[in-house]
Amino acid sequence: MKRNIKSHVKLVGIIGHPISHSWSPLIHETAFRIMNQDYHYAAFDVHPKNLRDALKGMIALGIVGCNVTIPHKEAVMEFIDEISADARLVGAVNTIHVENDSLVGHNTDVDGVVEALKPYRDQIADQSVTVFGAGGGGRAAVYSLISYYHPAQIFVINRDTSRAELMKKFFSDSQNYNNIKVVELHSLDEGNVIETSRLVINATSVGMSPSPGENVMMADPKDLDGKIFFDLVYNPVQTQFLKDAKKKNATTVSGIEMLYNQAAKSFEIWTGMSMPVDKVREKLDPKFAAARVTTRRRAAVH
Ligand code: NAP
């Protein structure tokens, strides 16, 4: 995307480490160009040892705000002046807005999950759901489910069960939600849990580029008719997890839905304007669908 950057341009961006594979610059830059706005979205590779200075520098340089991605989503909380209720309850910040020389933290991954699942709201309420993963994405998914979808029970399947137990305790203490059951990844229980769940979410990085052939789920149920499978992974747009589920008649939701929706909310926080998501999608969906794996380095989450 070629353009002249004027001196009065307003700067937003993303901090992560690594950052080179992020799709967020393309989404936000496309939106700014469609709207003819003098904003620029830059990707900053910030080493963890420089995180505090980078955040201070944002204020000094007059940067409007930034997205935050792996590995900084939790670490930034220590250096932020104010944290939104959602971000506090998830325990992670993915969007910072500089307001009156203060850093205000938000979690728009929650908006991303909530919006992506909106068409299925009635099917999820009072049902059992399964979430693979207990990292930042898993926390955002579980918090969104508890707060906005009210499932009867949430099974959290993770490789490291102690991490999942910590998450269970966190939501019991903070949300008084006591219906999380921890299951070990690839244990015998996995099949039963999937069988009883209406919604199954992959919030692990398994299946993400550059290993797109992998599926975190080992259980192999015959038919998934009536179930919804949602993958937070968006690169590739159609993951193995979704392809396998679709073959067995499940309804599938790609992580790209969450990506656009979290981006739109961050955009609104920084600019006070709505992102023209439909127009952005018209331009970018074909590019993302055709995205090829070009490296073995781990992709960033935004
Ligand atoms: P994270 O905090 O690093 O957590 C990674 C999770 O994946 C943990 O549960 C980890 O299990 C699990 N995992 C990693 N490698 C595994 C393996 N080989 N086998 C089994 N489990 C494995 O990362 P995150 O921020 O939650 O992100 C997870 C995924 O969500 C990423 O692909 C990211 O791109 C995606 N995401 C997408 C969006 C979006 O807008 N669509 C937003 C946020 C995140 P252990 O705890 O056992 O290590």
Model description:
There is one protein chain. The protein is globular and about 60 Å long. Helix content is 39%, strand content 19%. The chain starts with 9 loop residues before the first strand and ends in a 13-residue tail after the last helix. β5 and β6 form a beta hairpin. It has eleven helices and twelve strands. The protein has 302 residues and is an alpha/beta fold. It has two domains: 141 residues, Rossmann fold (3-Layer(aba) Sandwich), CATH 3.40.50; 147 residues, 3-Layer(aba) Sandwich (Rossmann fold), CATH 3.40.50.720. The C terminus is likely disordered. NADP nicotinamide-adenine-dinucleotide phosphate binds next to α4, α6 and α10.
- Please summarize the sheet with the most strands: 6 strands, mixed
Shape: globular
Spell out the CATH superfamily of the largest domain: NAD(P)-binding Rossmann-like Domain
The bound ligands are: NADP nicotinamide-adenine-dinucleotide phosphate
Q: What Rg is obtained from the alpha carbons, in whole angstroms?
A: 19 Å
List the domain count as a whole number: 2
Order of strands in the sheet with the most strands? 2-1-3-5-6-4
Question: How would you classify the helix and strand content by structural class?
Answer: alpha/beta
Helix content: 25-40%
**Helix and strand element order:** EHEHEEHEEHHEHEHEHEEHEHH
Distance between the termini: 19 Å
The number of strands is: 12
* Strand coverage percent: 15-25%
CATH fold-level assignment of the largest domain: Rossmann fold
What value does the average pLDDT take? 94
Would you identify the regions where 5 or more consecutive residues have pLDDT less than 50?
A: 294-301
Number of helices: 11
CATH architecture of the largest domain: 3-Layer(aba) Sandwich
